[in-house]
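Bench log, entry 3. Co-assembly request; chain sequences pasted below exactly as received.
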Amino acid sequence: MEDTLKKYEGRLPESVLEDVRQSMPKKISESKLREVMETVEKEYTQMLAEPGESVGIVSAESIGEPGTQMTLNTFHFAGVAEMNITTGLPRIIEILDGRRNITTPMMEIYLKKPYSQGKDIKKIALYVKETKLADIASEITLNLAESRIEVTIDNDKAKELAITEANLLKALKTANKNLSIDIKKGIYIFKMKSKDENSNAIYKLKEKIKESYIRGVRGITQILPVKKDGEFIIITAGSNLKKLLGLPFVDGTRTTTNDIFEIEEVLGIEAARHALINEVFKVIENQGLNVDIRHLMLVADTMCFNGKLKGITRYGVVREKASVLARASFETPIKHIISASLTGEVDKLNSVVENVMLNQPVPVGTGLPKLITKRVK
Amino acid sequence: MNKKIDVKKHILVPKYQKLSDKEKEELLQKYNVTTSELPRILKSDPMLAGVGAKPGDVMQITRNSSTAGRNVFYRVVVNG
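Structure output for the full assembly:
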């Protein structure tokens, strides 16, 4: 059986071969199997997209039509948590436009063995969360007369986060290098080293001090440990993949983020493509819609073609089109036509849109083959 | 605290392999394309670190696909 199947490797995808392997009885005769495989291959080749098929427009329609059913709600509660996550149409637009700053960055942190069973889960969660001075301060007062800022620390909160006075002072000193910091009776006094007395500056300073980084992973603003499939994972608001993959208790093989650009940066373009498909598919599935994943793969391949993530906008993939008329037909036509005429661009009319404009057969389907004759001398 | 991360083991990351010159020729012949028509991968891509790929090399990428099981893809290395 295996020998016969082996002949089809490379001709049929692995999943098809696996299906055959699973569904055939163990003691099938060689000749029967050969017959089956012939039918399988015939069926498979029939199902392939034909050369010249306009797969792009088919994908566009297949995603767009169910897309009209999607909710326009930007925020909605994702069941397990009290966390807002962008879903539905706004999320899809955000992904396909290739926006760098997404509205709700989020991570799923998987943990290594003893920790994934719940060991020290709270401690880890607190360690991951970014703590700023404002999180542990109970009172911040301005002393305008002596132009200094006095911060009272909430000791209960500090104890809960296991932050000692020495730790805190060190963190504050690295965060605010141009300030002098003293402790008097548990009150932290911030003073500017330089003597330019500007009453406005002190207000700005107060805001800056509030944001002083104390510890944790930068960018992680909220944490939520949850149990999923028998193990503990941490869901976060905010994202910092690079830092988190380097932490000793984090399972670096499964931890992901929903920020595709971050994935591109840390794990490369192929991983970003994979994540992009996952993210879009997740939204579509969530909405109870049914779009074949192959359409999304085509979109993702287009967006990742150049080795860099490009959104489907006039700044992204549309800009890369060779034809002036095709670019002009998307958005801002006058801009494109003017710059093309200034630089003397040539349109070779190789694609669909420009030929539609000029009332010529489009190079799609039966319009694709050309007749070539040999001249007889 | 930040030790060297082995990102190549991440579930999102496929297998990468550099094609030899002979394999590259065969590939271009098989699909009747030139390297400029292949999808690209930047030389600065984190997955190319330590591979020693030069612009013009072709990387073979074996993806895990939910539809085809396994799927082979090619990208040409470009500057950037």
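The interface with chain A takes residues 1-3, 5-7, 9-14, 16, 39-42, 45-48, 61, 63, 65-71, 73, 75, 78, 80 of chain B (CB under 8 Å). Chain B has a mean pLDDT of 87.
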